[in-house]
Amino acid sequence: MASTSTTELFLPPSFPYPIKVISVDASSDAVIQRGTRLLSYSFVHVPAKPDAQPESRFGTWDSASAPGEVISQRKAKERPAVLVLEDCKHGMQISGLCVLCGKDMTNADYIGFADSSRAHIQMTHSANGPLVSLEEAQRLEKETADDLLKSRKLSLIVDLDQTIVHATVDPTVGEWRSEGAAWKARQALKKSNACDRDSDSSESEDECNPNWEALEDVGEFRLGAETFGLPPGKGKNKMLENEGPMYYIKRRRFSRTWPQKYQMHVYTMGTRAYAEQVCALIDPTGKVFGGRLLSRDESGSLTQKSLQRLFPCDQSMVVIIDDRADVWEWSPNLIKVVPYDFFVGIGDINSAFLPKIEPLTPVTPQAATPPKAAALPITAPTLDPPPSADPAQLNPSLPASISPAEAAQAELTEKAMLTQNSIALEAQVEERPLAKKQEELEGEVVSDEVPSAGESSGGSEATVAQEPTPKKPQRKAALLKNDDNELQRLGKLLDEVHRRFFTAYEGRRTEDPRERPGSSKRRRDSIKPKLAYDVTLIIPQIRSQVFDGVHILFSSVIPLDTNPEATEIWRMARMFGAKVTTELTADVTHVVAAKRGTVKVDAARKRGGIKIVWLAWFTDCIALWQRQDETAYLLDDGTTVSTSAADAVAAAVADEAVEDEGWDGAAQGGEDLTLDAINWNDINDEVDAAMNESDDDEEGEDGRSERSAMSEDDWQDDASSAQSNSSPSTPTRQKRKRMRSITPSSVESVNGNGTHDVLGSPLAKRKKVAAERTGYSKLKEAISADDLHTRSENASGKQRSTDDSEAPAALSSLVSRASDEGMQEGDGDEDEEDEDDDEDDFLARELEEEWG
Amino acid sequence: MFFIKELTHTILLHPSYFGPRMLSFLESKLYSDVEGTCSGQFGYIIAVVSILDIGKGMVLSGSGQAEFITRYRAIVFKPFKGEVVDGVVNNVNKMGFFADVGPLTVFVSHQVGLRAVSLLAFSLSSGLFQLIHPDLRFDSNSNPPSFASVDQIIEKSTHVRLKIVGTRVDATEIFAIGTIKEDHLGVID
């Protein structure tokens, strides 16, 4: 016991080492006071003059420790020179008083040492709580850890804003709420009246505010005017100064089982008053948080959150959930949540002074959105916060609130930052972003209906565009919706962390029962990291499973002039367990691209077997801590969906002269064949030959695509021009691309006017099937097919190779018969028909429909 | 400890207040200025008992304000080391609890001190030194947080009797440390 209470004294670093101890002036077991001479020493002094001789000088070491000590031991240089047994170590102090002996610690002695410097760690939630020394902090933490282990709990630090609540001061919410409440009252009244007279109830079918459903459980409170921090006397703000703004708090649902597994703390960037009010709303009984509340008033920093603030020594049992990882400096304890964006576009009302988050470029082209929205119904609206997510950005009239980000370093600007924040708040009150959004939304609904009805061809795209916007077709569109399940997902993660921790803990304990459970030393010494019960190991472990075995190559994601290893996204990928490269190596499994047509994308496509996905796939994976299905994010989807958009461009494509010629020629050839209806056998042979050649051909194509690797856009136009030309025989690339698409060919073939049926390319199919079925007929008679024919047959040959599996045999036989007849007819009036292949196509389709 | 003390306070009065109701204004100004304040020297000024002399009201050249040097008698509260006081617990954390003794906040630590078995007279008896009885343990799961033993519980708004073991006096503030680990101290019903 004595050893723990001794204080180690080291020789001060300011000594002119090496020194030689001449005499020990205070004997062992002597009582010493502060200022008692402990020892004398000598050292060699070399004067500054160049030719001076070294001389010996002498010094003494006076104890700088508290009075009333006993020297018990003297040790070598690196070890403590003196062990002093103190009356009180002043390990915990409050407002300059030692909490044990009640002595004033603030008096500095003549060498400027004050005992108050001995306890400097603040580890309570309150700002004026006791300060503790490191030793004391360790002891307290061990106590806490023991308690928690005993009750099988971990610590959980939660953020408030955008993590478990979303707050706004927009008075629109209040108005909507009162509207809704009034409506509810009317409904209740109506219900009670309905028993008396039925006629009245049907008549008064009044309309409820569309947002009422989501707003019903929003909590509200008013904070004092001082939170606004405005200089008094601004006329227009008088009302606000008087009573402060009303805060509206939307709770995010989290499971009631969390408190059973976690001791929960709140750590927020809001003010104390705000945090208390919010906690009173989400936890009225105080059971969940129990006063463990840390706000920016106590945090000590306006830009950073520090785990050391609450857990100075041992963070192995702490889990953090927050919507921002940067304020925690990517702590290994952190589980980042998808920010709660209930009040659309409001952002975090308490972090106007924090640096803006640049969203991890989650931008996907519109075309890629629908599969994504379908795959992630949970968080789709919150995943890509609109660029105007911040109130400051939302209000362009407030450029001032952007500047704090740069000025944040200077401590003096802290106050300014707070003012900015309050200005931003005030702006929110005045500008009512929500009301605007709702208006916009309602406008949008009206304007949306018109074009989507008009352009039937691009119908698919129009619905695509509408889908992500939060609206319901019923009555009025609701801006605010209860559609957030983020915390349920998070709850599973938390359960997993908890389970792993205590599985490891139990395992360890049964293995070595003598070991004290809470001993942090033991934890650090752990030889088998897999078994370590340490959250800082478990969380990264779970995290790294997300991209386990994934080898990522980024394309046009990381700016060229930056060091890729240093970028955020690179680190994220590594943190989530992916291997990342800068070059297309053999192991690359995924190419994450921000746009089409980069060299890497093309090269990866050429190689095949590599999943080429939008960046959204990556961001979604790391947001949800789960590897998403890549099919929804594939880069190639874009081209097929945006068919109609590409139509317009198609005409302009002239530079791909060769290809165009090829198609035209093929089309021509197709007609010729139809018209002449001869030499099927020959053609058949050619088909076979083409099939044999197909590999070469493909290579040729790839080679070409490699050559034009830079011009992905051309490529695309190319494809679309092919579609719009509706050439019966499609070039190979087009073919392959089609096969990748999700859209089944049958759907496509029925699909309306402008977009012609490319995949079916019924003419080619007909020819092919006919060739198969009819065998050697009069068509045998030779006509030598020219080069263009050859090309077309190459294509159709390949077509068959793929189509055989798709087309049911019955259908194909029908078609073949149809085509036979069609050809018979074609024999008759060939002259008219060779004008326009479109017409021909149309006829063919009609026939097909007629027969099948 | 409470004292009745004669004190002075200087009031500067703006000329717009010069008039028939000046005296009553001075009085109310005095009350609002001094009651509830704390000076290191005298402690907390609890209440003004009587005004002995409102002062002469010298008009200052330059500003035109009148300066009244008011003498008054007030009840002051100054805590001393060793004093036993009653308080109400207002905050409990794992390190101890805070109790409000009127305007003064006293912290009572739960820390176990290891006082040296030394030659110093006052702690000859034992090596262990505490301010809260070890039977009272911090219960982090309770709501609100509390120190609890079999028969006693200390939580927010519990009344406790405590002894002040140390004070620190600032110019405008007083801090105090207390103990409840002595006879007749602790929870009072």
From TrEMBL, chain A:
EC number assigned by the record: 3.1.3.16
Bias kind Low complexity: ranges: 452-462, 718-732
Q: Name one GO molecular function term.
A: RNA polymerase II CTD heptapeptide repeat phosphatase activity
Instruction: Give the enzyme class.
Output: hydrolase
Q: Where is the composition biased (Basic and acidic residues)?
A: 778-792
Region annotated Disordered sits at: 376-400, 434-483, 691-852
Q: Where is the composition biased (Acidic residues)?
A: 691-701, 822-852
Q: Which residues form the FCP1 homology domain?
A: 149-360
Q: Where is the BRCT domain?
A: 542-635
Write out the annotated subcellular location.
Nucleus
Highest taxon of the lineage:
Eukaryota
Which key words tag this protein in UniProt? Hydrolase, Nucleus
Cellular compartments per GO CC: nucleus
Which CDD domains does the annotation name? Answer: BRCT_CTDP1, HAD_FCP1-like
Q: Which reaction does it catalyse?
A: O-phospho-L-threonyl-[protein] + H2O = L-threonyl-[protein] + phosphate; O-phospho-L-seryl-[protein] + H2O = L-seryl-[protein] + phosphate
The record, for SMART domains, names: BRCT, CPDc
Return the Polar residues bias intervals: 742-754
Q: What does this protein do?
A: This promotes the activity of RNA polymerase II.
What is the protein named? Answer: RNA polymerase II subunit A C-terminal domain phosphatase
Automatic annotation (TrEMBL), chain B:
- The RNA polymerase Rpb7-like N-terminal domain covers which part of the protein? 9-64
A Pfam family of the record is SHS2_Rpb7-N
Looking up InterPro entries in the UniProt record yields: NA-bd_OB-fold, RNA_pol_Rpb7-like_N_sf, Rpb7-like, Rpb7-like_N, S1_domain
Renumbered to this chain, the signal peptide range is none
A Gene Ontology CC term for this entry? P-body
Name the residues that span the membrane. none
Enumerate the subcellular locations listed in this protein's record, separating them with semicolons: Nucleus
Which keywords accompany this UniProt record?
Answer: DNA-directed RNA polymerase, Transcription
Coiled-coil regions, chain positions: none
Q: Where is the S1 motif domain?
A: 78-109
What biological-process GO terms show up in the record?
A: positive regulation of nuclear-transcribed mRNA poly(A) tail shortening; positive regulation of translational initiation; transcription initiation at RNA polymerase II promoter
GO MF term set: single-stranded DNA binding; single-stranded RNA binding; translation initiation factor binding
Family statement: Belongs to the eukaryotic RPB7/RPC8 RNA polymerase subunit family.
Under the heading PANTHER family, the entry gives: DNA-DIRECTED RNA POLYMERASE II SUBUNIT RPB7, DNA-DIRECTED RNA POLYMERASE II, III
Q: What is this protein called?
A: RNA polymerase Rpb7
Q: Which organism is it from?
A: Mycena metata
